[in-house]
């Protein structure tokens, strides 16, 4: 009898395992509706720093390399079939998949890779290349044959592989770029798993399966629709009602709890720390923010530790950290961080010092406009928090919340005094996070418009340093310089919570919402 | 000789009736109107001198008191930032009154001028003005305000969003113009208007000096009624994220944002601003109705 029971349990377990394995077999077909909480200002990831552009554009494009999200931060090939790096780390050779087609029907060759990377590192007039500085070490790009591309560097760069895997560096057609280098801002022609169907402003973007996608068997979906849901409440209602099946950026703890209560076991919740922070940013070309005392005073008035405790209950903001994600290997430890301006735990003394600095600078009754995006989470809580913090040292702030496109236009044109900016990273490499602080003359991404030779020097030193301890020293020195000068400073780092219906399969969670947005492996279990 | 001079007994002397105090008369005639007027006065006092009424600064964040229930410390509880809801409602009355009064005054004044001009000139001008008013009336009031506020964006002067006031005023214009035109049509055929025309007065003088004062009653009624509409519209636009911006205290804004996330755990976040909006709208509507009844001669016969 005992043997019979064990046998039956064994058969049942085998059958159950078989059912689960069958359930995990991807199913082809179906239309997938998901929410995008902001509308892309344009279609070109090269010139963008908002996830809205990536969630919009990624399904249409491919990159040279990419992150394997099952083993993050391991890198794998995308358009590159294989690659080699020379021992001196000065030559990177990539062999491309054969027969890759653009949606226009043209075949992808190494010339397209070269044209793409030339556009990123030397953008023609009128083209914005947000991460131009990350490829400053490239001396030349060679195309010995249609399937091989060789990058030669001036000096070794420890972050180069991460830059090749960046989701922002999507590959464009050389033919398109020759005709009009700015065309990717308004036209889509990629090699990605989906072809562009339509973009209805204020409503949605849609795509259908690319039957010629070079990864055989992918994508699984017939089509998808990314629906712009600028209001969090609208997005959550749509998720609950099944009009959308997922939102891949992230929601707040309160929104998570509400959806769990409403949807129960139909909902999948995935959480991670986030390679994303909000920064306070001063336009150093506009008085009085050209005065280091004013900038420093404003940073010293912010109680990040208290703010972290409160804001983490109501928003996606959570961890206090410097320029590198807290908890990651090269992050500044808390004991060191509290010594830097703006990170003291003794907020009373810090604010007294801030008032003194403002008085010295002759700006005791300072008034200014704080620019912010009109995304409820977590931009609004961050704005409300800063207004309150600065009010406590006698500073009066008008909080101006704007749509993404005019906000970015104001940031790029320098038509602002103080703003809440974001550092939208896709890995923990410090070079990536610190590029933003390079002198404006070297990097258009530095929206503070500050030029600081010392920061540039420390950036270079950490970039070339292979010894981890020494590199950490350079990173901390750069951080100290940056915060003492007060050009810009992280407010808090985010915590990522992604909600999806359990019918959505194949999507992989990571610490960055910029990754895994191409939907190639997503399928619907229904 | 008999004294033939007439004598009138003191009791028979004609005495002019004493004119009643207009305020007391209004209170007796329209008791509900008086109650609503008191509510409006309280609101105005709170809006003008919030620092004497509110126990806290409406912008004060207190993370130790997040979502605190109503208590002696926080009469109406606190919101998701630990801000005192009673204080935010008191300060919010300023936002509501400034936008309500300004929008209604602007919309009603433009509407009145257009209505009188339409009645006075008649013919083609009347036709053009009224067809334009028909176009504006074709849009629901909230839709028209939404379109205008989205098109104009924000222009903040002295802490007040001027474009929001314009957006709320525009839907008021045709509604006031219609009513005032009807009243002005009857004034336009009065002999004193003909006399003014015969005397060679300019059109502007006739409209502003002779016609406008005679349509004051419908104008005042519409003006007060539309203050309520404007307050409601401002709250709706703020709720939709198109009105005032955080952290400014505004009733509509208090119902949106974090309130949508936490109203289950902290219902006071939505109950008290909702009551404030309802009370203000109720008071202005009631006062407008009472004023109409009080000023309308048909109700006095």
CATH superfamily of the domain at 90-296 in chain B: MetI-like
Largest interface (C-beta under 8 Å) = A-B, 28 and 23 residues
Q: If you consult CATH, what is the topology of the domain at 90-296 in chain B?
A: MetI-like fold
Q: Overall mean pLDDT score of chain A?
A: 91
What does this entry show, briefly?
With 526 residues, chain A is α+β, with helices and mostly antiparallel strands.
What can you tell me about this protein's structure?
The complex is a heterodimer of chains A (about 525) and B (about 300). With about 525 residues, chain A is of the alpha+beta class. Chain A has helices at about 1-25, 50-55, 110-120, 160-165, 175-180, 230-240, 255-265, 290-300, 305-315, 335, 345-360, 380-390, 405-415, 430-435, 455-465, 470-485; strands spanning about 30-35, 65, 75, 80-85, 90-95, 140-145, 150-155, 195-200, 205-210, 225-230, 245, 265-280, 315-320, 365-375, 395-400, 420-425, 490-500, 505, 525. Helix content of chain A is about 35%, strand content about 20%. In chain A, strands 11, 12, 13, 14, 15, 16 and 17 form a 7-stranded mixed beta sheet that branches. A 4-stranded mixed beta sheet of chain A has the order 1-10-9-8, sandwiched between helices. The longest helix of chain A is centred in the N-terminal third of the chain and has 23 residues, at about 1-25. Chain A is globular, with a radius of gyration of 24 Å. The relative contact order of chain A is 0.16. Chain B has a domain at about 90-295: MetI-like (MetI-like fold). Chain B has 13 helices and 2 strands; from the N terminus they run H-H-H-H-H-H-E-E-H-H-H-H-H-H-H. Chain B has helices spanning about 20-30, 30-50, 50-55, 85-120, 125-140, 140-150, 160-190, 190-200, 205-210, 215-240, 250-255, 260, 270-295; strands spanning about 155, 160. In chain B, strands 1-2 form a two-stranded antiparallel ribbon. In chain B, strand 1 (about 155) and strand 2 (about 160) form a beta hairpin. In chain B, helix 2 crosses helix 4. The mean pLDDT of chain B is about 85. The chains are: A alpha+beta (about 525), B mainly alpha (about 300).
